[in-house]
Amino acid sequence: MSQEIIQKIERLRSRRRAIILAHNYQPPEIQDIADLTGDSLELSRKAAETDASVIVFCGVAFMAETAAILNPDKTVLLPRPEAGCPMADMITADDMKRVRAEYPDVPIVTYVNSTAAVKAESDACCTSANSIRVVGSFENAATVYMAPDQNLARYTALHSAKNILHWHGYCPFHHALQSEEVLLRKQEHPEALFLAHPECRPEVLSLADRVMSTSGMLRFVHESSHISFIVGTEVGILHPMRRMNPGKEFHAASKKMLCPHMKKISLDDVCLSLETLEPRISVPEDIRVRALKAVERMLLIS
Ligand code: 13P
Ligand code: SF4
Prior knowledge:
Rossmann fold, binds iron/sulfur cluster, binds 1,3-dihydroxyacetonephosphate, four-stranded parallel sheet, 12 strands, alpha/beta
């Protein structure tokens, strides 16, 4: 059955001149049919470069919105539009306006895990892969405001000479990881390196051997001579890690790190989306042009 669906997706993908992009947390069967899997920065770059007519985004709403911000003339599909990101919904455009009014001279760097309307109120976007460099790019600013993720902001502050102010948002699934659980995993696997995503709490990050974006982790485990890893990010990443590194061992830091929003899309949903060219994601033009400036500034910085 799934073979039939995959063949149908193949036919529709070429008929529609479509590209399928999937985040590293997507279900295995979705990652396996994607043209490109990656972290938020890589997927944004691919969305900016593609000459496909249709982009099927297998991820959550802010990712498809970013693709739509970059490609107003393309059809951007999110097969399950209700797949959101709770952290992105922890700050509104009105909150951002209040921050701007309170700190009129402070640049605002917004994590790409945010709505288009929030991006539109920002000076630059960043991802977990480039937050330190984006903040550093405001050469004349002694202070930078970061939204919405408190943990990414605190992590960035540790590696920046700037004074970092921040909003109080968080990812419920990364924030759920406690240092006690990490210490337990370390006891169970004393030989393993512990990798953590910057969305984890500061006390968890202080236990990590490496702090990286999801694709940073994938590259690192592939190149490392270590064979055992405790993985402090959403459990979907274990699939590409195991597929690409058959001789190595990967242990989830916690079973609580499962983002249900990233698991909504099925092969049937992708197929139906390619058939109907729905549900489409678009961003009102006045918001899009302002959000685009912040996203483009992010893409200029590796
Ligand atoms: P990455 O950009 O590291 O893939 O992270 C995106 C995300 O949503 C993390 O929860
Ligand atoms: Fe949002 Fe967290 Fe899910 Fe990433 S893992 S999409 S930050 S809720």
